Amino acid sequence: MYRVLLATEAPLAADELRDDLAGHGVDVVAESDDAASLAQLVVRNAADLVVAASVSPSPPMFEAARLLGTLAPCPFVLFTSDRDVVKIERASTSSVHAYVVDGYARHRLPSIIQVARARFRHEQLLKEELVGLSQRFEERKLVDRAKGVLMRSRGITEDEAFELLRSLAMRSRQRIGVVASSVIDMSRAGEAVNRAGQLRMLSQRLVLCYAQVLSGLEGGQAAQIGGDCIQRVEANLAILRKAISTRGYGELVDRVAAAWQDVREICGQPPVPALLPSLDARAERMLDEAEALTEFLETSGLVSSLHVINVAGRQRMLGQRITKLCFLLAVEPSAAQLEQLRELTSRYQAALDYLQKLPLSSEPIRADLAAAVEQWRRVREALGRLSEASALIAVVHAGEQLLEASERLTDHYEQAMQMLIGDRLGRMR
Predict the structure, then answer these.
(1) Would you list the domain boundaries of the chain?
(2) Containing H/E element for 252?
(3) Which H, E and C letters describe 19-33, residue by residue?
(4) Could you check whether the bond before residue 270 is cis, i.e. omega within 30 degrees of 0?
(5) Separation CA 225–CA 230 (nearest Å)
(6) 170-307 domain in CATH 1.20.120?
(7) Residue 9, Cα to own-chain centre: how many angstroms?
(8) Assign residue 50 a region: left if phi > 0, alpha if psi is -120 to 50, beta otherwise?
(9) Are 423 and 154 in contact (CB under 8 A)?
(10) Distance of alpha carbon 388 from its chain centroid, rounded?
């Protein structure tokens, strides 16, 4: 027995159609003469078939059919005397399964309903096949990306990576696409912490470059580095938006981006001494927002080694901030900035000691840690004689080498985290 919703548009009345449906044993559960409420009535009355009649179907009638096809799909029969080609074409794209022109007759009702139901079932089958095909395609892409993560992290072949994913899916009773998505999420966590941490460093590096240009100390190279920093900030923000904005961190990324626009406004103008304090203040706000984002990503991460990436990444920022303060002190000595310099120096040393004691290590990590220790020694040595003219140049050169070592070190820790992910999955087989 069908549960039919009967819909008509003036000037037609529903009496004859209702009686004819009843004569064929069809249960009319509701009637409507307002196309705008059609979809709501179908849902409310759990109708599994719509039979409509209109001399000339209105746009709301077609919109109701389209809406039903999306919200509560069911067969839709429409009787009309309108032969307009445009409306016939619209009916075919609006989930109308039988558009009957000048063909209404009581004895034809059962066959027309059966045709509409058959077309509806065929349409639903095609939709299900399309959804299934799309899901399999997306799953294949996820599996390929997850295999790449495992191949890089564990040094295994593509076949071995797939077997690892398949075994884990069987053990956890999940689809392989779900497992692959989890692997990718863990991989992205480390990259997100790394890139968010880079934003902290870049905020300070831009002020340093600005101050260098004003001082005339290797100003041409500093201007080029500043341009590269701007591109890196924009690229990192774009990647972070794509990677994490849908996971509830979007507001934090927006706050970093808003602070960045304030910094970008000054960086886009020719450097003048009067704007240096304002640029530094804006960069400090960007640093605070980037720090909040990085800390949130670390504490929300799926693996504990994200803290290591955060600490190593923060060293990049601290090194650049220390170098920046040296330039600011050269422009205008300040007791507050001297105290800040001492505090940052102490923080850098403490973090370096922490990294040196970590059991998480490899040959590249040990090499870059040694390089960072040596360059930090040179920075400390130059800081002890800031009153000398050559000390500022020494800080800049050692600071650049220190930054390069810190960048490599952070990347190595991120790669080490990938290996931990692969090892964890391997033990779960």
Answers:
(1) 3-125, 131-169, 170-307, 331-429
(2) helix 250-267
(3) HHHHHCCCEEEEEEC
(4) no
(5) 9
(6) yes
(7) 47
(8) beta
(9) yes
(10) 49
Environment class of 206 (CB within 10 Å of its CB; exposed 0-12, middle 13-18, buried 19+): buried
35-49, 258-272, 288-302: which has the minimum mean pLDDT?
A: 288-302
- What 3 state SS string does 50-63 have? EEEEECCCCHHHHH
Report CA torsion sign: 85, 86, 89, 95: negative
3-state class (DSSP) for residue 335: helix
Tell me, yes or no, if the two domains 3-125 and 170-307 fold the same way.
no
The closest of 309, 312, 330 to 415, measured between CA atoms, is 309
300-304-305 Cα angle (round to 5): 115
As a whole-number percent, the residues of the chain with pLDDT over 70 amount to 90
Distance CA 391, CA 372 (A): 19
Report which secondary-structure segment, H or E, holds 352.
helix 335-357
Distance CA 372, CA 311 (A): 14
Kindly state which CATH superfamily the domain 3-125 is placed in.
Response regulator (3.40.50.2300)
Determine if residue 102 is left, alpha or beta; phi over 0 gives left, psi from -120 to 50 gives alpha, anything else beta. left
In tens, the pLDDT along 91-117 reads: 988 889 999 998 788 888 889 999 999
Smallest CA-to-CA distance from 303 within 428, 419, 421, 178 is with 421
How does pLDDT run across 223-271, given as a tens digit for each residue?
Answer: 999 999 999 999 999 988 877 654 556 788 899 999 999 999 999 889 9
Write down how long the chain is: 429
Backbone angles phi, psi at 361, to 5 degrees: -150, 165
Six token digits for residue 98: 């039988």
H/E segment holding residue 358: none
Q: Where are the beta strands (DSSP E) in 96-171?
A: 98-101
What is the signed CA dihedral for 259, 260, 265, 267, rounded to 10 degrees? 130
- 11 burial via Cβ count (<10 Å: 0-12, 13-18, 19+): exposed
Residue with tokens 């989890």: 182
Confirm if 347 and 318 have CB atoms less than 8 A apart.
yes
Cβ atoms of 324 and 211 within 8 Å: the answer is yes
Sign for the pseudo-dihedral over CA of 212, 291, 372, 195: negative
Strand partners, 7: 32, 52
d(CA 396, CA 380): 12
Phi, psi for 417 (deg, rounded to 5): -65, -40
